[in-house]
Amino acid sequence: MSGELVLYTHPNSRGRVARWMLEEVAAPYRAEFLDYGAEMKSKSYLAVNPMGKVPALRHGEAVITETAAICAYLADAFPEAGLAPPVDARAAYYRWLFFGAGPMEAAIVNTALQFEPPEDKRGMVGYGSFATVLDVLQSEVSARPYLAGDRFSAADVSVGSLLFWSMQFGLVEKRPAFVGYWARISERPAYLRAAGIDDAALEAKAD
């Protein structure tokens, strides 16, 4: 893959997840910070992401939006980083990437909005119940070190970040299995570099 990598982001957004992935693949990139409101809704940025939100990633002429998609794209675009299993061993990898972007995020956001689907309507929301989502994830991170098996992958960047954010804001209880899982993956040098960059950007905005 060739072409400049540009991350459109805000230091207090899901763009932190995309930056973590960029640091993991260790490819040169530049970041363009956008403020919430007018900048993200500007005509120039809506040409990049019509949803008017961050993150978005430009790689040459290609534009990728949605955080989990950016993680998956970078894992495939830079296979030397080893962030996706071989194609014939991706069952768990795909399962958890889509679990995080689908049932898990929907369950967390709905619960934060104090919406609990009636028991007879749970089949319509795709995740059943918030408790089921957490129990399933707990079972997985208790059984193995990483979501796709014994090796860290883009699925851990995507799902792990959502889990951390949710625990940080009190949306998900800090179960020992969740805390232990986050401790394992947040020790990675790429995560520490990415967090440091965005934390510094936040401080600069505050000054």
Outline the structure in words.
By secondary structure, the chain is of the alpha+beta class. It folds into 2 domains: 5-82 and 190-206, Glutaredoxin; 87-187, Glutathione S-transferase Yfyf (Class Pi), Chain A, domain 2 (Up-down Bundle), CATH 1.20.1050.10. 53% of the residues lie in helices and 8% in strands. The chain has 9 helices and 4 strands; from the N terminus they run E-H-E-H-E-E-H-H-H-H-H-H-H. The chain has helices at residues 15-25, 43-46, 67-77, 91-112, 122-125, 130-143, 154-168, 176-185, 189-206, and strands at residues 5-9, 30-33, 56-59, 62-65. Strands 2-1-3-4 form a 4-stranded mixed beta sheet, covered by helices on one side. Strand 1, helix 1 (15-25) and strand 2 form a beta-alpha-beta unit. Helix 1 runs parallel beside helix 3 and helix 1 (15-25) packs across helix 9 (189-206). The model has no long low-confidence stretch (mean pLDDT 96).
Topology diagram in text:
Elements: E1 5-9, H1 15-25, E2 30-33, H2 43-46, E3 56-59, E4 62-65, H3 67-77, H4 91-112, H5 122-125, H6 130-143, H7 154-168, H8 176-185, H9 189-206
Parallel strand pairs: 1-2
Antiparallel strand pairs: 1-3, 3-4
Short description:
With 207 residues, this protein is α+β, with helices and mostly antiparallel strands.
* Strands in their spatial order, largest beta sheet: 2-1-3-4
Number of strands: 4
Helices and strands: which structural class?
alpha+beta
Question: Largest beta sheet, briefly?
Answer: 4 strands, mixed
CATH topology group of the largest domain: Glutathione S-transferase Yfyf (Class Pi), Chain A, domain 2
**Domain module tally:** 2
CATH secondary-structure class of the largest domain: Mainly Alpha
Measured distance between first and last alpha carbons: 38 Å
